[in-house]
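User: tokens in, sequence out, please.
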């Protein structure tokens, strides 16, 4: 394996590390880390949604373009446009679009929507946040929201199987 390949951020390694950290925080009752990990999980859910939308869009572009005479440069421009579009989606827009393109089903959409609202309340009203000093409440929030991130990871793994390439886990192309 070349150094260049080894240095690329591999999504599965990152997800495994985050998952181990979240499990450790919950299993070991690291109360002082609950809040930080809630925020981390919110970020994870939002960015996995955006990345999954990007993969679905580029895969669809590839399927649409197959059999047509489209230059590699033209296809790469479309991929870049899709990447830029997805990176600029808000959390709200990502949830709506993921549902609209059948990436997620309605029950997960509802959960993601609730998580987004909770995230907004937490971030924008932190100074009022009633659970700041209540680790039991924070742990319940963290445990509940982790299930949504696990479900989005399963969707990403399904996309990888559909696309048939380990390259989907090289996230450097998306997070440039």
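Assistant: Sequence out:
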């Amino acid at each position: 394996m070349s150094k260049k390949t080894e240095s690329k951020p591999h999504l599965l390694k990152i997800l495994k590390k985050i998952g181990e950290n979240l499990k450790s925080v919950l299993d070991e009752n690291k109360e002082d880390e609950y809040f930080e990990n809630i925020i981390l999980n919110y970020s994870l859910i939002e960015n996995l949604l955006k990345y999954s939308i990007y993969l679905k869009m580029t895969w669809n572009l590839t399927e649409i373009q197959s059999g047509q005479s489209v230059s590699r440069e033209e296809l790469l421009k479309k991929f870049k446009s899709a990447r830029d579009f997805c990176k600029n989606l808000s959390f709200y827009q990502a949830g709506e679009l993921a549902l609209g393109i059948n990436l997620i089903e309605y029950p997960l959409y509802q959960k993601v929507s609730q998580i987004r609202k909770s995230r907004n309340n937490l971030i924008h009203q932190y100074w009022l946040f009633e659970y700041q000093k209540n680790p039991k409440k924070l742990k319940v929030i963290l445990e509940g929201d982790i299930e949504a991130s696990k479900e989005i990871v399963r969707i990403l793994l399904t996309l990888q199987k559909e696309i048939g390439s380990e390259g989907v886990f090289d996230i450097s192309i998306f997070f440039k």
